Amino acid sequence: MELDYIDHINAYGDNIVRLYNFDKSQAMLFCNILHQNLIVDQKELELCKLDFIQARNCSLVLRISATDEGITSSDNQSFFCDMTKEGYKQMLILLEPFCLKETKAYQLLYDIDSLTDFLFSPNGSW
User: Fold this and answer.
1) pTM above 0.85, yes or no
2) Residue-averaged pLDDT of the chain
3) CATH number, domain containing residue 63
4) Among 15, 51, 57, 91, which has the highest number of CB atoms less than 10 A from its own CB?
């Protein structure tokens, strides 16, 4: 599984942080770790520290917050995803199809009006 940042993906200046290049087993592992850290333990999760994720040009820390803010950064290298516990539960629902079978589909992991989206895509496309 790889993690990267792509800026200006459209005419509106939107960006994405993308988790890609993975199979069903890695999707399941990611979901289990996300559930344990954020839902059960309520601790932040630094994706770069996970053995099966290779950071290409950025880092991403998932944190629990009082409101769903999505992904932000001050330098376009260190990113923070601030979501409520309920927001992460919804994210896990969106991730579930990737854990059930191999697919070429993709999913944006939240629907928030922000400049940076969070893309989950086995083959990297959208």
Assistant:
1) yes
2) 96
3) 3.30.1360
4) 91
